[in-house]
Description:
Strand order of the largest sheet of chain B: 8-9-10-15-16
Shape of chain B: globular
Largest interface: A-B, 113 and 120 residues
Structural class of chain B: alpha+beta
Order of helices and strands of chain A: HEEEEHEEHEHHEEHHEEHEEHHHH
Helix content of chain B: 25-40%
Distance between the termini of chain B: 80 Å
Largest sheet of chain B: 5 strands, mixed
Radius of gyration of chain A: 24 Å
Shape of chain A: globular
Oligomer: heterodimer
Number of strands of chain B: 16
Number of helices of chain A: 12
Bound molecules: protoporphyrin IX containing FE, iron/sulfur cluster
Strand order of the largest sheet of chain A: 1-2-3-6-5
Radius of gyration of chain B: 26 Å
Number of strands of chain A: 13
Amino acid sequence: MSLPQRKTDIGPPHYEQFLPPVIKKNLGKWKYHEVLNPGLMVHVAEGGDKIWTVRVASPRILSTDTIREISDIADKFCGGYLRFTSRNNVEFLISDEKNVEPIQKELKAKGYTIGGIGPRISNVVHTQGWVHCHSACTDASGLVKAMMDELYEYFTTKELPNKVRLAVACCVNMCGAVHCSDIALVALHTKVPPIDHERVGKICEIPTVIASCPTRAISPDPAKKSVKINEEKCMYCGNCFTVCPAIDIHNPESDGVAIVVGGKIGSLRSAPKFSKLAIPFFYNEPPRWPKIIAAVKNILETYAKHARKHERVGEWIDRIGWEKFFKLTGIEFTFQHIDDFTFMRETMRSTPAFKW
Amino acid sequence: MSKKKHETPLLDELKKGPWPSFVKEIEKAAVRSETANDTLGQVEKSYRTRRGYWKHGGIVGVLGYGGGVIGRYSSLPEEFPGVKFFHTVRINQPSGWFYTTKALREICDIWDKYGSGLTNIHGSTGDLVLLGTDTESLEAIFAEYSSRGWDLGGSGSAMRTPSCCIGPARCEWANINSLEINYQLTQEFQDELHRPAFPYKFKIKTSGCAVDCVAAIARADLSIIGTWKGKIQIDQAEVQNYAKKGMNINAEIVNMCPTQCISYDGKEMKIDDAECSRCMHCIAKMTKALRPSGERGATLLMGSKAPIVVGSLLSWVIVPFIKLEPPYKELKELIRKMIEWWDENSKPRERIGEVIEIKGMRSFLEAIGVPPSPAQVKWPRKDPFIFFKDEDFEKVYKKGKY
Ligand code: HEM
Ligand code: HEM
Ligand code: SF4
Ligand code: SF4
Ligand code: SF4
Ligand code: SF4
């Protein structure tokens, strides 16, 4: 069978051909919006036109079957238009008010999870994990599933002081803005990778291996026709494994997950911030990682109980102080919490005025 | 198709519970695809042994392109032949992630023909990511998609697929047309997107306002964030409505304004616009009563990246204000100058933000023709190791006007 004529460098299709007519008509003319329920909002244009949006959760990994099912629903109620959000939620765009109730009913009947709008948890940004990435120290989809089963109501109904953005990165590369999330899981290797000297010489290109190390911990080992690793410099990132499978960074016994908190991206009220370490390590406990999930829930609920309305997790911690954060959450402060990589200077406290 | 049914007792646990299950998605695809079926098997093994079994490497792609496909292989090809190859194809998504169902079905039909039937909608890159195909199918996949108007996204040391917030399509806060800016920049840099020739990756993300729904400030080498220069318009009647509906305006708005420029006496709200830092808090909380007005444009910030290796950076202000209207000539030229300077000054694998740190803001700002401004810093330098060029004395200090 012959293939169609390929084209190069055409770029993406122009978005306008995918916009519902009411959006095309009111582009740039929206006046205000209201959140009507945790999964429904309406946007009202200057001239009075309205568009309703129903948001549902997605597991990010979607089969083509599910995409077709979602499409069927959008055909029935949305004139064939829908979109996805930057956090992988599905948004059904409804131009006709009489479809607003029926689509929600049908989505519920088909088992879709409606919610994620307003001061709640939205879909969890995450990376590939054991499903697809070579660097992964844990699974990402599984952690998200286990976590959101537990925090389900904070997506569908319950309110929090403000939005809480959760994220999971399956290694320290942190694909996906984990480093600026309210509460995030980041998976870590914790040991210097062992070198299989026999195989390094045979299957790896030594200069590439040396160049792959961001901290320059790797140097040649001419005697063994291999490389050696300076253990003091290694921070277990696994880049060497990426280029040389004979330096196997995976270690089922010592790979695990840390929890970081208090990051944000938007500039509302306070500047965007990085997430900071709350709990340095948990062992991997697939399939449901119960200790990690319980720890996330504890942090979330401590925040929900103590923060003022509209405060993000990081703003709440900034107000009460980290010493209070550790006290209120009951998390133990350890040597790992004190920066000993390269950023210690900016993290030291230089005032005796702090809270007990 | 003869299929080995894998026992997946651990993954089955993740089919339970109310949140949508990725395991069910893989199972659905596994009905038709041996690749998806063996994905289940291999992932179950990861769950059992607590380690991954993927390796990547080797250059895979389509003719004439250097990126857009991420090569992936199983390290257990004998045990799981279906995932011996498991490459990812990045399809460049439309601005704002809008689709018609017709377009989505077409994407699915092609993918079912050549791939595993598994997708990420979307990947954190913004692209529409198709998971799991073999090397041989890549040309066919590209021919089918590109003939129907879909192109590959960026990967490698290239311009990465730009992405943007929903902007004017459905957001009253958009100060710029994020969708069109994103589309035009993607088109402008097609060559840079598909043929990696940079020292490292370069990402552009556009948000219509400081709420920053695409995380531009944390995830893009160039973060374009819409803003305004005029007043915040106040609809006093709507302010009263919020109060009537139970909003504690003093606690929730006045006291939380970071610049303390709002006052409210129970009847009238006043904003001292000259003091406002345009953070969006009040507007986002009183969407019916408050809105920006006057001149619109964007702040350009640069440099954000994730932690590897010298630590994360957030983008910082480079151009405090720029008007952004089609055909965005000034912006495109500015980006070209930025890239050129970066190319000339960096070692391989250095992001532009890191190079600015190493070479200094002055070198960069002079190269792109942007003057120094207090908006670019949190505070002026606090060390006395001050550098001068002769021309600085001529231009500033000899005149005796500091
Ligand atoms: C040594 C460092 C890194 C390596 C070797 C690496 C490698 C990869 C690979 C192979 C993928 C494709 C995964 C897949 O689709 O199977 C990926 C995805 C990605 N990476 Fe990284 N990465 C690194 C660091 C980072 C960092 C620091 C960031 C963040 C700023 C980042 C952002 C991303 C994003 C956004 C994706 C897309 C994830 C998705 O769509 O699910 N990467 N990375
Ligand atoms: C065959 C080798 C490699 C491949 C195929 C690869 C692929 C990738 C991919 C797909 C991404 C995600 C890009 C995105 O955001 O869309 C990525 C990110 C990254 N990779 Fe690699 N990678 C390789 C090797 C390396 C090595 C050896 C290093 C480090 C020495 C490295 C450092 C990074 C970093 C730092 C990022 C993210 C940077 C950021 O966003 O801040 N990669 N890589
Ligand atoms: S965070 Fe690490 S393991 Fe996860 S997808 Fe990115 S590079 Fe792979
Ligand atoms: S794990 Fe990372 S830091 Fe350690 S030797 Fe390998 S590349 Fe270097
Ligand atoms: S970044 Fe601002 S303009 Fe864009 S969608 Fe978010 S709130 Fe709206
Ligand atoms: S936008 Fe922010 S700084 Fe400006 S008035 Fe509103 S809350 Fe205050």
